[in-house]
TrEMBL record:
GO terms for cellular component: cytoplasm. Gene3D superfamilies: 3.40.50.2020. It comes from Paenibacillus oryzae. Allosterically activated by GTP. One of its GO terms (molecular function) is GTP binding. This is Uracil phosphoribosyltransferase. Its EC number is 2.4.2.9. Residues 9-210 form the Phosphoribosyltransferase domain. Uracil binds at residues 196, 201-203. SUPFAM superfamilies: PRTase-like. InterPro entries: PRTase-like (IPR029057), PRTase_dom (IPR000836), Upp_B (IPR034332), UPRT (IPR005765), UPRTase/APRTase (IPR050054). 5-phospho-alpha-D-ribose 1-diphosphate binds at residues 81, 106, 133-141, 202. One of its GO terms (biological process) is UMP salvage. The gene is upp. Pathway: Pyrimidine metabolism; UMP biosynthesis via salvage pathway; UMP from uracil: step 1/1.
Amino acid sequence: MSKSKVVICEHPLIQHKLTFIRNQETNTKDFRELVDEVATLMAYEITRDLPLDTISVRTPVAETEAKVISGRMVGLVPILRAGLGMVEGILKLIPSAKVGHIGLARDHETLLPREYYINLPTDAHERLLIVIDPMLATGGSAIAAISSLKQRSCEQIKLMCLIAAPEGVRAVQEAHPDVDIYIAALDERLNEKGYIIPGLGDAGDRMFGTN
Ligand code: PRP
Ligand code: URA
């Protein structure tokens, strides 16, 4: 199978807001608000290829044919914790999406993810699922989340992250060549602790004010 598509969302508004998200001086409240706003803007890009149906509609002056999004239903699957911060922003554009959750934590020594929670809509396998996480570092968490969804018969999956390391993109493409990846920035590399350089630090800690 050929490699999946990687889309870098280069819209100036996304890039501008991402700079303030990266800045270590940005406080928790502003960090949350900016992540929420970027998620909304990225949702616009990730839904670009949703199929449309044509319906009849009566305007105040004429009958016409117009487009509506066809029956394809969307599900959001944030990876806990940090993925939670992107959910509301996407729901602003897709309010009817259902939301499942996957809890994964990276072991700080091995960098391997451990699944501690999963709860999906019962019809998840019929939906286009968007897996959400601000950071794609080694790719271990995203790969595990997508594998978990596939084990539950989910087949239509996209991945949305704010910042990715080249190592993580390659790993996801190898493990899941059918899953397109949407990111706001492709950074330089990982450091020896598995942090993205330059990145934004620990996304969960910055989102929730922990450390
Ligand atoms: C962070 C981040 C991703 C993961 C990325 O979560 O939100 O889920 O690391 O790293 P990877 O690509 O190397 O797997 P973390 O495990 O720190 O959990 P948290 O969201 O609860 O802070
Ligand atoms: N997880 C984070 O939160 N930040 C990184 O840079 C890498 C993994």
